[in-house]
Every structure is written in structure tokens, then in C-alpha cells.
Specification:
This protein has 226 residues and is of the alpha+beta class. It has helices at 5-14, 49-52, 61-72, 170-173, 185-191, 208-215, and strands at 82-87, 97-101, 106-111, 142-152, 155-160, 176-179, 201-203, 220-224. It has one domain: Beta Barrel (L,D-transpeptidase catalytic domain-like), CATH 2.40.440. Strands 3-2-1-8-4-5-6-7 form an 8-stranded mixed sheet. 45% of the residues are buried.
Length: 226
Amino acid sequence: MNLSFRAVRGAVVAAAASLALASCVSTPAVPPAPAVAMPAAEPTAAPTLAETAPAREDLPPLIAEALAALEAHSGHVPRRDKIGVVDFSLPSREPRFHVVDVATRTIERSWLVAHGSGSDPNATGMVQRFSNQPGSHASSRGAYPTANTYVGQHGRSQRLIGLDAENDMAMDRAIVIHGADYVSGAMAARQGRIGRSQGCFAFAPDDVAQVIDTLGEGRMIYAGKA
């Protein structure tokens, strides 16, 4: 996408009214808060990844891929100190949403996260495919800057912007971060998998606030499968 991040961020707010019709989000319980400006990048050039940390040969392939995506999309990601990496090659019973420190290239924290039912139609707990199509109820691969938060059917949630051809329908599909009762460690232990979303990044209700607060606005999530 060739739009500036500020322009894309404005599009999120403009699209808020249409999100009530999309798959993962119902009409907010209260009107969304007025839009606030996204944190701007520093006026001086931000250091590249090569300048912030030495190359590491032991990086998991998906984290290395995510860091490359951060570099490629740096103009759309004002905050580049940490990123979220969703490793959909892992089963849903395992914590696979990782917060990665960019400077040290280490995982700070991991949580359980659901994938879309359209990516796993037989409820195996494993992502079988990705889709960017509205109505697919599938997860999408790619880079997502975090946008504004709001209160909806699932409580406090956070909108995401899709930057790649594989996920650029994220706003139209209302792909967001939200909490869900079908995500829990107890469920993962009991049945070997957690529940599925309609394509959103769904977390345990007790975890979602920490995920949102850790990422804030203007950081990147990268989802993929090694």
C-alpha cells in the first residue's frame, strides 16, 4: 500500500461505522472515542534493524521474517521498539502470540491466541490455510499496525490495519484484537486446542488488556506460518 500511515489511520476512523456489519465485531456498546492522533515517528531517521542489533543466525524463521517486514513497512509503523509475532505454525493449545524486543531480538512474553474457523474448518487446532476474503472467517498472513481501541461486544478491543496484499481487507473484515471466552489455558489443556474466531486475534479475557497495553497504538503485528 502506498498511503502514508497517517492517511491509513484516518481511514480506520472513517470506517468505524461500517465495522458493525463485519464478521468479528458487533456494534460497539458505546460510541467509539474520538480519534486521537497516532504517535508520530521521530523527526530524525529511525535506526535500521541492522543498527539496533547484530544479525543472529538462531532466530526462528518467522521472527526473522517479521523483522524484515518491519523494515519494509517502517514508514507505516511509528513505534518500532517491539513487535507482535503470531506463529500460526504452532497448534492453538500453545502460546503462539509473541512480543519480540527488536533491539535484542528476544521474545519478552507469549500468549494463547485463536485463529479463524475458516483457516481450520475441521477444528484440528492447526491453521490449514489463510484467506483475505470477506466472509471467509479465516486468518490472514501479513503485517498489521495497531490502531485505536474501542469498546464493543467483546469489551475493550483494538483495530488493526492490513499492509500486505494478503491482509489488506483487514479493516473491511473488522479483523481486530479482542477477548473471547473460548480462549483459555484450561480449555487448551482439557481438549488439546482452544476455540476459533472469525478471523480476529482473540485472546483470553484475562489477557487481552495486557496485550493491548503492551502493544499500544502504532506498533506492528506480523502473522504467518513458518
